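1st attempt posting a full record on here, be nice pls
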Amino acid sequence: MTYDRYTFIVEELTTSLKELEESQSQHPLIQKYIDDEITEVKQTLNRIRNNQYGYCEMTGVEIPFDLIKMTPTCTSLDDALDWRRFGKISSHS
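the predicted structure (as tokens):
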């Protein structure tokens, strides 16, 4: 795995981190979500720097790149597939 493969993700995460760090909320719950997201982005950037990014922390299996693009802060395959919880709901019973 090379850093080049994730260049656009690093750029996106770096921009997101800057925006998040500039965000402040008077509402404690919203601020907690902001702080949690800052932590996730920083941890992801550290995993990239340490060549530990893109692999499931639970199984060691490489997370498919398409899933990483959808959920760049994922740390496991379960995290990467978490989007399915919010996916399309069938209108057929």
